[in-house]
Automatic annotation (TrEMBL):
GO cellular component, one term: plasma membrane
Stated name of the protein: ABC transporter permease
Keyword Ribonucleoprotein included in the entry's annotation: no
Domain ABC transmembrane type-1: 5-184
Transmembrane segments: 12-33, 53-80, 123-145, 165-187
Membrane topology type: Multi-pass membrane protein
GO biological process: glycine betaine transport; transmembrane transport
Annotated Pfam families: BPD_transp_1 (PF00528)
Length: 198
């Protein structure tokens, strides 16, 4: 169980880090290019409608069996909440902060990096928290395509009718999800306290 937990968290961590990098980048891009916002977000919404397992199976011919399809599916599902919240956060920063940035001589790029992005962190953290839940669920399903992790324990338990294995793996997976969500919620709360909302 320990090795499966490590595998599970390894896949989860890789997927979440990639999701954050891509999601925040997409959010910044569509903020800077407003005409692309609706098409990009609509496309990501379409991806969200594909069932988890179906998306993993669709990725199999491209990424093959193992952790690859699971990580790829996690990333595809998780880009939307992060990109959407990043875009919304950047767009809704109070203009008084922009005026102050201009008054002290910051360029638009400097204002983005030093003012808008920091002020958007509470919303970005909220998007990451949603992505975290998506990733945990998809990584668990990855056991069906030999990705490893706790999903494999559940899959083996179902195939061999091992009720104890199913119960322990299910409870442990649920507990991990709750703990990670609580940790993300704490970070989100701290960011709200520091930067407030608008």
């Amino acid at each position: 169980m320990t090795m499966r937990t490590i595998e599970h968290l390894h896949m989860f961590s890789i997927a979440l880090i990639l999701s954050i990098i891509i999601g925040v980048s997409v959010g910044i891009f569509i903020y800077m290019k407003p005409k692309t916002a609706n098409p990009v977000l609509n496309f990501l919404n379409i991806v969200e409608t594909i069932p988890d397992l179906a998306l993993i199976v669709l990725l199999l011919p491209i990424v093959k069996l193992g952790a690859g399809p699971t990580i790829a599916a996690c990333v595809l599902y998780s880009i939307l909440p992060i990109a959407r919240n990043t875009y919304t956060g950047l767009k809704n920063v109070d203009e008084q902060y922009t005026y102050v940035a201009q008054a002290i001589g910051l360029s638009p790029k400097e204002a983005l990096l030093k003012v808008r992005i920091p002020m958007s962190l509470p919303l970005i953290a909220g998007g990451i928290r949603i992505a975290l839940v998506f990733c945990m669920g998809v990584v668990t399903l990855g056991g069906l395509v030999a990705a490893g992790g706790l999903g494999t324990v559940l899959q083996n338990g179902i195939q061999l009718y091992q009720k104890d294995a199913i119960l322990v793996a299910g409870l442990w997976t649920g507990l991990l999800a709750v703990l990670l969500d609580a940790f993300a919620g704490l970070i989100e709360k701290k960011l709200h306290e520091r930067y407030g909302t608008w």
